[in-house]
Design brief:
Length: 359
């Protein structure tokens, strides 16, 4: 059942601390700066030279997030929409690891991508034991988020990113030959993430923001790096359950076209992750506000220059820059949820959509 919540989606948003704990527990040793993935001991990925991540929808956004994590760890990686990979697979090359990401393990487009890559080594990161993709792929890594009923993927995304974070550290060690320089700090931040997600779900800020923009024409989401993946995911969640026009962009992309859409009726949600790129994102925010566009920053509460430059802040606790996106995404899940609830939408079963897209 819904355990006292109005919707499965809200229940699953609230389950994220537990789900994340399960994804990470016993798999990360922050003191030693090492990961211990069952079935993937050190050396598992020796000989791998590049990673292709294939997925659809929310899982594709987790793939984009992982692409950033891998690239910054010196592991060449590219995220592909699984459908495009299946249509035009890159040439088979020795040393490629194809990582499929799928909550259900049953997504037809993702299965097609794995079949198109049959000459490569394949690994699925999935939430469902015994799903089709676990049979199609050479190896499976479970995200352990627990069953997800709401059509809108929530806790599965957080747990996918956590699991892919561990995989990124394993790959870094095997591909580059040494752990990431800040592996200990990263893994300790990963271990602290469940409590921080708990703080976000208890904060109440997202509902107030959703209420302030109840009558807007469209909703835009911007970010860079992992924050770009989160911007796309924020927009997908918002359009999926509110039926409003929502779009995500890289922050820099705005001035190359989308800025033409910005008016005082189009709030823009900007993800700040505490990296150098924040300065540029702040510049993009000023361009939006100069056109009258309201801006909501999703940022670490202790970034004072951001708070002064925007209309609202959805605060997230301070963490490793690679993990700010997970916390920011929870704020955006809550904004979408409250905006959809206000509009009386069918939150757990949005029109035209199915939980598992097997065709
Ligand atoms: O089960 P999968 O992760 O393979 O599903 C992929 C997409 O169909 C899924 O993430 C979809 O985009 C969600 N409804 C998003 O909330």
């Amino acid at each position: 059942g819904k355990g006292g919540y109005d919707h499965y989606m809200l229940k699953e948003i609230n389950e994220q601390p537990t789900a994340l704990g399960r994804s990470v527990r016993g798999r990360a040793d922050p003191e030693a700066g090492t990961v211990d993935l069952d079935g993937f001991p050190p050396g598992t990925f020796e000989g791998i030279e590049r990673v292709h991540l294939v997925a659809m929808g929310t899982s594709y956004h987790a793939a984009m997030y992982a692409e950033s994590l891998l690239a910054s760890r010196g592991v060449p990686a590219r995220a592909f929409m699984a459908s495009e990979y299946a249509t035009a697979p890159p040439p088979a090359e020795d040393g490629t690891l194809v990582v499929a990401i799928s909550q259900s393990g049953e997504t037809a487009d993702t299965i097609a991508a794995v079949r198109a890559a049959s000459a490569e080594r394949t690994l699925v990161v999935t939430n469902v034991v015994g799903s089709s993709l676990t049979r199609e792929c050479d190896d499976a890594l479970l995200v352990r988020a627990g069953p997800e009923i709401g059509v809108a993927a929530t806790k599965s995304f957080s747990s996918q990113v956590a699991t892919l974070s561990l995989l990124a550290e394993r790959l870094r060690r095997d591909v580059v030959g040494s752990p990431s320089p800040d592996a200990a700090a990263f893994l300790s931040a990963l271990t602290a993430l469940p409590d921080q997600v708990q703080q976000v779900v208890e904060s109440g800020a997202a509902e107030r923001v959703a209420d302030s923009f109840a009558d807007s024409e469209a909703y835009f989401f911007i970010g860079r790096g992992p924050g770009h993946a989160v911007a796309l995911e924020g927009a997908l969640k918002f359009k999926e359950i509110t039926y409003e026009h929502a779009e995500g962009f890289t922050a820099a992309e705005l001035k190359h076209g989308p800025l033409a859409l910005v008016t005082e009726d189009t709030p823009v949600f900007a993800v700040f992750d505490g990296r150098d790129g924040d300065t540029e994102t702040l510049g993009n925010v000023q361009e939006i506000r100069a056109r009258g566009g309201p801006v909501v920053a999703v940022a670490s509460g202790d970034a004072p220059d951001v708070a002064d430059a925007v209309d609202h802040v959805l605060p997230v606790p301070a963490t490793h820059p690679d993990l700010v996106g997970v916390l920011a995404n929870v704020q955006l899940q809550l904004v979408a949820y409250h905006a959809a609830k206000r509009r009386g939408r069918s939150i757990d079963k949005p029109r035209n959509l199915a939980k598992s897209v097997t065709v």
